[in-house]
Amino acid sequence: HKPLKDKVAIVTGGSSGIGRASAIQLSKMGAKIALVDLKERNARKVKEEIESFGGEAIVTDTDVSDVLRMEESYNQVLKKWGRLDIVFSNAGINGKVEPIEDLSAEDWDQTLTTNLKSTFLSVKLAIPYMKENGGSVIITSSINGTRTFKNFGMSAYSTSKAGQVAFGKMAALELAKYRIRVNIICPGAIETNIGKNTFPDNEELKKIKIPIEYPEGSQPLEHHAGKPEQVADLVYFLASDASSHITGSQIFIDGAESLL
Ligand code: NAD
Questions:
Q1: What processes does the entry annotate via GO biological process terms (predicted)?
Q2: Of residues 129, 157, 214, 236, which has the active-site annotation?
Q3: 187 contact partners, CB below 8 Å, separation of at least 6
Q4: Is 74 a catalytic residue?
Q5: Contact, 9 vs 87, CB < 8 A?
Q6: To test ligand 1's pocket by mutation, which of 16, 46, 185 has the most ligand atoms within 8 angstroms of CB?
Q7: Total-model pTM
Q8: Which domain range does residue 55 map to?
Q9: Which residues have any ligand 1 atom within 6 Å of their CB?
Q10: Into how many domains does the chain fold?
Q11: Is residue 107 part of a domain?
């Protein structure tokens, strides 16, 4: 028995890391998956992986911060499957890592629109399709900006992640009347590609030493960063009826990293 049989899920950032692992997990539990990502080629690989174990997936090549392309993606999903039950608003970037003094307004906007405006769009566009039958929305925030403030140079990132928590809670409140649940997950360090190429050669930052690498012992539970598959288990739980009374919650998944 597959608990998510006949359900349809949109996964943004589904071609890599946490999104990929979650798309696979939701698919194994029976959901049909729309992989919404900028990196179409990688998304196609995930689609093939899903199909290799008998799952169903489509790819929409989309910038999650672009309202027209997001509308197109949602339309594609509805045209294909006629319903929407789960939205995992997860695509994100670290953005430019710079001290505030040097951070440009354009770089600030880039991070805020990619991480935060995208979440607003992911939720807003789901409402017309979910208001009849309810649904579950999961938003990937972070411990950064919501419980810890240790990543020097990531003011825009931390602000976007804090904004996702506030937005997710407001959405949970507003959408409860439609039985649309909205929960926010806050991972600590997870082994993905997100940190690659984002940390610049900045002397000022080097002096302060951003914790780019997560040293031995940085997560008390396992002494290393978490795995995307561990986050995917939480995403599946929040997507499924096993969490039917949970909404507006912010759940940390960090092996106690943020308590250090
Ligand atoms: P990742 O880089 O492996 O995956 C992110 C995905 O988002 C990529 O497939 C990328 O192509 C996609 N993406 C980026 N910008 C996009 C855009 N404008 N439109 C569409 N797709 C876009 O990284 P990840 O670690 O799996 O990140 C997923 C989420 O987890 C992010 O929101 C991130 O902030 C959050 N997070 C990650 C960690 C960590 O340590 N990895 C910790 C806390 C929170």
A1: bile acid metabolic process
A2: 157
A3: 18, 140, 142, 143, 226, 231, 253, 254
A4: no
A5: yes
A6: 16
A7: 0.95
A8: 8-255
A9: 13, 15-19, 37-39, 62-65, 90-93, 114, 140, 142, 187, 189-190, 192-194
A10: 1
A11: yes
